[in-house]
Structure formats: structure tokens, C-alpha cells
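For consistency, the fold was encoded as C-alpha cells, as this record shows:
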Amino acid sequence: MEPDGVMAKDLFKPGEGLTYDDLIIMPGFIEFAPADVSLTTRVSRNIAVRRPLVSSPMDTVTEDRMAIALALAGGLGIIHYNNTVEEQVKLVRRVKRFENGMITDPVVLSPNRTIADLKRIKKEQGFSGIPITEDGTLNSKLVGIVTNRDIDFEAVDTKPLREVMSTDLLTAKKGVTLEQCNELMRKSKRGKLPVIDDKGRLVALTSRRDLLKNRDFPEASKDKNSQLLCGAAVSTKPQDRDRIGALAEAGVNVFVIDSAQGWSSYQIETIAYLKKTWPAIDVIAGNVVTARQAGALIDAGCDGLRVGMGPGSICTTQEMMAVGRGQGTAVFHVSAAAAKHGIPVIADGGISLIGHIAKALALGASAVMCGSLFAGASESPGEYFYREGVRLKRYRGMASIEAMKSGGGKRYFTEATQKVQIPQGVSGAVPDRGSVHDLVAYLSEGLRLALQDMGYRDIPSLHKATQKGELRFERRSHSAQREGAVHDLHSYVDPQLGQKSEL
């Protein structure tokens, strides 16, 4: 019997742009449970994650707390660059230091430093268990350690650390395994375990908190050094070369060239520079919406692509610039072109529901990049506020007037001396979505159910089915779209927001 629906290549006719809501996927045969579905995917040539979720490099979405939470949950956070080099580097370092089991470059102080120095480090980097060595550097003799317990009741911040540090130390010898460290801390009930060489010099530090996180977050996105994965946005501006070098030194895992229109000589030159100067760090280029754009950036050497021009909830590029493409059409055509080169695609924008994520993956994307979906999470920058009884957080496009005044215009081809700024985004607010950990768990379970309904156990097999024409689609009329959503009710409770909504 001839299957219902049409192949993706027949759905996306030349000269017609479709969004996610314009299409529906035909069901497949179910012979496995949702728990059997794997969501592991690649976000770039050499970086794989357990969840196909990436946070947008926006100043109201991704800083260190978001990147940490998303990496622990199996995704990837991209730190925004609407800040100074030093600020962005500090955010990346917080992510890289947050959980890595064996900390090979711990912050170290000398006995002559003060409690005030310790408090400053705690405020800036989020931890206070610091080893004390003879000269305040790594690889010098360990003489003590200072934790919160040592300074909680100290009123004088100028007191030297030598007067408050603990000298009754439990240590491990160089070459010890993480499992052995865990057992030593379990038996001793210590929170920190310095690792020293045969001469008593500090070489590393392990933390009970980090080891517990290894247990509690088995799906965490980590690099070969067991550190959380972290990406950072950079621009094509020449002055960002210093930023790029500083981020590389901080241990960033992937550069994301943040440009609204990625097919430019500036981006091609930036890709060449990044791959020549930092060949071990993957480069995600974009944004693109056509196969021709994608081909140029792939030829330049990029390791991944971002797809989308104007589909975001706060983006007005398509209206203001008259340039862009329907996101469904863009994802399909770019993914098909990139797949020939083994380059993963991240669908960027237009994601507000689990179904949108599932459709993006079915059309060939390896992951999705979310802005508004994560902006309301407790880990995003900013404070909550109430409006008409609804708990909200501020969310703004990087091309909004407000963001451009702070430097967000770097992703658009504008000059610093430009007197008239043309916004391609707006500022607004999004509802509270709770913690990223709960949100990712919700999205992940929904995606497993979606892939089960399609009849595929993992993302690679889903992609192959689309390429071979085995996965079938249909166009949805406006009436079909209305029928497939909530309708004919006076009000209802939104399961994602946990609040009443009016129709």
C-alpha cells in the first residue's frame, strides 16, 4: 500500500516558505518504549551531547548559570558576548571550573593573603574551598586549606589566611583515581581533597560536591578533561581577535560566530582565522537559510551551522529587512546540503513547543537553539517581576534598541559611528518556566514520545528516514492548525507554564 503523505523534498516546493506549524508528520510503527529512544546528537563536527538543546547567546538567556545547568542536563550553553572580554572569559571559566572531578588548575592563595581575598574569589567564581601553598601558586608546597567553615565567624576581613587556615590536611598522592578520591572523602567526611606529589607540592584538587554531581548528573555534557562543555559567541569584528584568544585560553569548547546574515567575506575570513589559530576548537558558523550560504561556510572550514533568519519571537529581521526564509524550509534545505559534508545543523529560532523541536529534528537539524524557551528559566540572567499576576522575566532581542546600546549590534553589519540604528528585534517579557533541569526533563520526555510516534529510536535514524523519503509529511491548512491546537474551550491550564490561559 502506498504510504500517506509526501516526502520532504516534495513538500518544500521551490518559491514557497513553510514554518513548523505549516506541516505535520505521518505516524510510524511503534515497536519500542519511549525509554528506548536516544536523544544523543552532534552540535558540531566533534562535539556530541545527550540532549539536542542549545541555549542562545543572548544577554537575557545565557550566562554561567544557564550554561552550567544546561550542560549538567545534557545540553550546551553558548555564553553571549554583549560584555567585555574579561566578563565573558570570567563566565566561561565559571562553567569550566564548576564540575570537573579532578581540578588540575585550582585557584590557589598564599598564607599572606587575607579573608577579604577569599571572599572576593567566592563572589566572583562561586567557590571558597581554596588550597594554601607556600608562595600562592600551583606546584609549590601545600601548607593548608581554607573553607567557609574556617571564616564563618571571623569579623576582620584583613586577617591573614595563615591565622585561619586548616593545617590538619587529608591529601592524596599524584596518580590517584577519582574513585579512590571519592572513597577517601567518604570515609573522612572531608569536602576537599588536595592531590600532592612526592615533595608535597600541590598538583590538583578534588571536591566532594563535584564527585556528587558526577553521580547526580550522569547525562552531563563534558569534554575529555571531564569539564562541562561550554560555547561562546564571537563576532566577525577584527577587534574580537583578542576576545577569541582569551576565550580559547579559558578552555571554551566551541566558538559560535554570531551573525544575523552569515554569508559574508567577514565570516569566511573569521572561520579561516579560527581554524588556523585554534584548530582544536570547533567553529559553528551562521546564520544561514539557503544551501548556497551553507556551502560557502562549509567550504571555509566550519564545523557546524546555525539556521534561521528572523523566526525568533523577538526578531523582526524579516519584516524590517525583507530578507530571510520560513524556518521549516530553511532547516530542510540547509540540513540536506550540510549532511553531504557531515556537518551538523542547529535550528535557531521559532521554537516554543516540543512539537517544534521534533519537527526541526525530522527536517534534518541535529539540535535546536532556544531563546525565549530558556529566557524564563530561573537560571537565566535577570530578576523575576509580576505583571497582572503573572511572574515574568525580561527578554530582549540582541538587535533591539536596548540591547544594541549595550553592544548587541555586533552581530549585525552596522558601524560603531552609525547615527541612526535600525532595530531588528524588540524587548519584552516571558513567563516563569522554573528550573532548566525540570524544563529539559519535560522537553526530553516529550521528544522521546514524539520520536516513538514517528517510529524511530534515535536522531540519526530519523535523519536517514527523511533523506530516503521514508518519513512522510503533510501540509496543514489553517483549519487543520486550529483543530490540532487547543480550541472550543473557555479557558485551560497551560501544562508548560502551569497557569490558566484564555482563548
Remarks:
- The mean pLDDT is 86.
- The chain has 18 helices and 23 strands.
- The first helix runs from residue 8 to 11.
- The CA atoms of residues 150 and 186 lie 21 Å apart.
